[in-house]
Amino acid sequence: MPATLLVVGEVADGTLTRLSAEMATLAESLAEAAGGRAIGLVVDAEPAAAATELAGFMASVEAVTAPQTSGESWAPYALAEVERAVDAGVTHVFAGVTAEGRDLAGLIVGRLGWGLLANAEAVTWSGTGPMVEATVLGGKAITRSVFTGESGVITVRTGSVEAEAAASPGTIEARDAVGTPSLPAVRVLERVAEAGAEASLEDARSVVVGGRGIGGPEGFGLVEELAGLLGGVVGATRASVDAGWIAYARQIGQTGKIVKPALYLGLGVSGAMQHRVGMQAADAIVAVNKDPDAPIAEIADLFVVGDLFEVGPALAAELRARHGG
User: What is the pTM of this model?
Assistant: First the structure.
């Protein structure tokens, strides 16, 4: 049976996420290699805009209106649509390495008994199925894995491929969600708007990260200033988050977000393996640390040995001068 690949797109503030576009590009290339086809899926209270964006990268997209997702957890509704797609012949499902994507992948595995290949950094078609490449052991080793069965779920990291628009827009099938999900509803009781949360770490071209070396929550003032001057986003290490200096949503690493910006600037970041897993694919890595033996020096393109509270303000002054004030 020819492979049918389903990409589950995610919506942020009404628009398609960058990772969803990357997964669409990946799935289309795999479908071509497999002699099969790829389908996009957007499940949202208002899916039209994101589905139109996804159709710019895929030949076929389903836009499913699920009003309940505005006040309930998204994953059960996405799962219901995935189950419907599987009944129609879908063999593999692609979800993002995000909080929502991980939730959905876990539900699919539990409900369908499928295998899961997580944190894919590269995927190729190998004979009868996808081969997933991922780093493990804090980036010390690379694994290449395949499914033992004919179906499976793959979660994909940001930056695994470069999103490429299709030659012509794909078709969009708009419909309502399928009835009530088989799983209990999880209501959203409260939404808390975090400062800076409107800027996505995964989509940022520049990320400025504060580590243990910034000394406390007040140190993030410098991090935020530099991020603003660079047109970037604030990130953090696990140590900073665990200390309560900044919200978990800003954490980069194995238990946080995976980023691949054009520029990563680390201030007081030691570069523990757990953190490096989440940022080592950045195009350019710049780090400032007083310790010349800090592990991050091993992967930095530019490593500045110095006091971040001297180097940082000097960098900010230079950036302001270049911006004309």
Answer: 0.79
